[in-house]
Specification:
heterodimer, A: 72% helix, globular, B: alpha/beta, nine-stranded mixed β-sheet, four-stranded mixed β-sheet
Chain lengths: 365, 373
């Protein structure tokens, strides 16, 4: 019994895992995706975008309340039958898998631009996958602890960025609401990629040790990530202004360059250091999610060889189809629509069936 | 349990060694004596025919000798494009060069009037270049500035960095002349770049004014007197000295720190601005007001007179800026855009030059020093 309770996750670890999968390295360019449409009100768009994870969170809380011990893969087989259920689960796997190459290639871009420009892509990918597969192989408990540590990195990132307040001007975000409600709403759509992958909660909720605290820990994660993105977008617009952000690629890093500190030259290096750890952690998490969904199809997936094979497949896809940022963005704009659309449909339908059938624990028949 | 733990330690160690080995295949690591560290960059152009120009980029390198001493060398790259000149520069270099530690970048006046857009692009793109280097515009050839030997400094770039960095001690200069500041100012709506203008006088480099830019092109140079007024009207939280003199023997100086606030109003199509300058300072010397230490009236009289004088100077400068320079160096467009909406296709330089700009100066004496001799 001791062994089992050790493997279960505490509420804070659930929060950390959810924040961990949503906050990847791409959030450094989150301002770019909203500023083009929402202009100086981009930070409002970033806050509005949190509706998507919030919706996912409420569905998860509802389903977890009814079936605290079954994850979504089991539920879909139960309601859709074995064939359609398996197909739906495979699409669910694909929706996560679609983030995998894009996250790895973004990490590659950042590390090759800012840190190790002299290394070839293959070398960096091998290192990335080695780190990712090793930590994913260690299981979800280890990942959760890594994510808890990573929250400290986020807190450091946010706390240090308060220094930027000295360097910008409030005039850069004025006039507030100047770009109109429609553009703000349209800008919020641009943040879906950053808020995506919250659906991991449907795999995690059976693992929590105290299911009463699931609600608070999920909502805490949404609140944290919403605040973090809003702050990043706000501080970047505040520092650089809306005319400069489209000229940069990772605008948040550019904003941190204005902070001058002794010995380190500027804060950028510290930020990249913290952020690259975040990126490796996201890769490990995606690794874990992909393997654990595939494990449902065939019990042999989950051994050491399957980790290696998945890594090789991801490296192959990334190097063939994601050679640079432009091709990545054109693919991602399509795959994100598919992933988000399918996931929302999938969880909504399952929640609706549970609601109509009045199934599960605590249902009023 | 112990055996299992040992296994884990070995595995992690082996993974780390593999990662390091993979990363280091095919990469040559060289000692510091084998690299040239760029400490200053400069940009210049030459006209080779009426229609075409040639880029000339002198770079200043720190050279490290085996005995631990440090020298300085200048290399010049010439070419028809920026990349071409960098390529040509490598032909006269015998070492690997390292960017990222450059302290200054000097743009010649000719280059600046031609537009600094390609410089900014090259700097923004480079992942190695430092964004904290100080920018300045120089008179004549930029190579002379980098090559100038200044006593007590290993290279002229070290001296120039201090020159621009510490200019904020007086003359109302700000510190916003770094590359990252220029990026932000050159492309934002309603903002314009201003850079210190340096000259060589009697074998020493000094700041002799400011270079005003319209977007990325230099428009004109103002001398140090006007530069002080411009800085005062443009920057917030800067330090400078004001003086009031009746004749060569009767004068009073006060060192103030100034706070700037801008108000903007729009009536119809016409904009009007009010710049409020609140200055608080300490008297440095006083040979004019005899009783200023003890008499509140006398102090008030001085405060009024110096405020009035500064206000008039500011007004005459603004008139000159509106009619002669025709550029909005005071960043008033930024304020108007933040109040009345952005991205409407308004040319703020033109709008500001045709609007009313009011200046209100309030000088206050806070300290008078240890005594009044």
């Amino acid at each position: 019994m001791v062994q089992v309770s050790k493997k279960l996750l505490t509420p804070i670890e659930i929060t950390a895992l959810l924040i961990g999968i949503m906050a990847d390295i791409n959030s450094a360019s989150a301002p770019n995706s909203v500023v083009n449409i929402a202009k100086q009100d981009g930070w409002i768009s970033a806050a509005l975008g949190a509706i998507y994870p919030l919706y996912v969170a409420f569905i998860a809380i509802y389903i977890a309340g009814r079936f605290p011990k079954d994850n979504i893969l089991i539920l879909s087989k139960k309601y859709f039958g074995n064939v359609i259920g398996t197909m739906a689960n495979f699409l669910f796997f694909l929706s996560f898998f679609s983030y995998f190459p894009s996250v790895s290639s973004t990490t590659l871009d950042v590390s090759r631009t800012y840190i190790v420009g002299f290394l070839t892509p293959l070398k960096i990918y091998i290192v990335m996958m080695l780190l990712g597969s090793y930590s994913a192989y260690k299981g979800v408990k280890v990942l959760a602890r890594v994510c808890v540590l990573n929250i400290f990195a986020f807190v450091a990132i946010i706390a240090l960025s308060f220094i930027i307040l000295m360097y910008g001007s409030l005039m850069n975000i004025m006039p507030i609401f100047g770009s109109g409600f429609m553009s703000i709403a349209k800008g919020a759509v641009g943040t879906t990629y950053d808020y995506a992958a919250m659906e991991i909660i449907f795999l995690l909720y059976p693992l929590i040790n105290d299911s009463k605290k699931l609600k608070s820990s999920v909502l805490k994660a949404v609140a944290f990530i919403c605040f973090m993105y809003t702050w990043i977008v706000f501080i970047t617009i505040y520092c650089l202004g809306i005319d400069i952000i489209p000229k940069t690629i990772w605008s948040f890093f550019s904003a941190t360059e204005s902070i001058k500190i002794e010995a380190l030259h500027n804060l950028r290096f510290l930020y990249i250091f913290l952020w690259i750890l975040t990126a490796f952690k996201t890769i490990a998490l995606l690794y874990y999610v992909c393997i654990s969904i595939l494990h449902e199809f065939h019990k042999s997936i989950g051994n050491k060889i399957s980790y290696g094979v998945l890594g090789i497949i991801v490296i192959f896809i990334t190097m063939t189809f994601f050679p640079d940022r432009l091709s990545r963005e054109s693919i991602v704009s399509v795959t994100t629509k598919f992933s988000v659309g399918f996931n929302l449909l999938y969880i909504t339908v399952i929640a609706a069936i549970i609601f109509v059938k009045k199934d599960g624990k605590g249902a009023i028949k | 349990m112990n055996n299992k733990h040992n296994k884990k330690v070995y595995l992690v160690t082996i993974i780390i060694i593999i990662i390091y080995a993979i990363s280091m295949i095919g990469i040559d690591v060289v000692p510091i004596e084998e690299v040239d560290v760029i400490n200053g960059v400069s940009y210049d152009i030459q006209k080779i025919s009426p229609t075409s120009i040639k880029y000339v980029f002198p770079f200043s390198f720190s050279v490290f000798y085996l005995n631990g001493k440090r020298g300085n060398r200048i290399n010049v790259g010439e070419g028809l494009t920026v990349g071409d000149s960098i390529q040509n520069r490598q032909r006269v270099m015998n070492k690997k060069f390292v960017q990222g530690l450059e302290k200054v970048f000097i743009i010649s006046e000719k280059y600046a009037s031609n537009g600094i857009r390609n410089v900014l692009d090259e700097r923004a793109r480079s992942n190695e270049a430092s964004d904290m280097a100080f920018g300045m515009v120089c008179k004549g050839n930029s190579e002379d500035f980098l090559g100038l030997k200044i006593k007590g400094y290993p290279s002229s770039s070290d001296y120039l960095q201090g020159l621009i960095d510490k200019a904020q001690q007086d003359n109302f200069f700000s510190q916003n002349y770094k590359i990252i500041d220029i990026f932000v100012r050159a492309a934002s709506e309603g903002r314009n770049v201003v850079l210190p203008y340096v000259e060589i006088r009697e074998n020493a480099i000094e700041i002799t004014g400011l270079a005003l830019f319209k977007k990325d092109k230099m428009v004109c140079k103002v001398d140090i007197e006007e530069a002080r007024l411009l800085n005062m009207l443009r920057e917030n939280d800067v330090v400078g000295t004001l003086s009031l003199e009746k004749n060569a023997k009767q004068y009073i100086d006060i060192q103030v720190s100034s706070k700037r606030k801008v108000k903007c109003e729009k009536k119809g199509d016409k904009y009007s601005f009010t710049i409020n300058l609140d200055m608080i300072g300490d008297i440095i010397t006083n040979e004019l007001y005899k009783d200023i230490k003890d008499n509140p009236q006398e102090k008030k009289k001085f405060e009024n007179e110096i405020s009035k004088k500064t206000e008039e100077q500011c007004k005459s400068f603004i008139n000159k800026m509106k009619n002669e320079y025709k550029v909005d160096s005071l960043e008033l467009g930024k304020k108007a855009a933040s109040k009345y909406g952005r991205r409407k296709g308004i040319d703020w330089n033109e709008v500001i030059c045709n609007s009313d700009i009011e200046v209100k100066v309030k000088v206050k004496v806070s300290r008078q020093g240890k005594g009044d001799y």
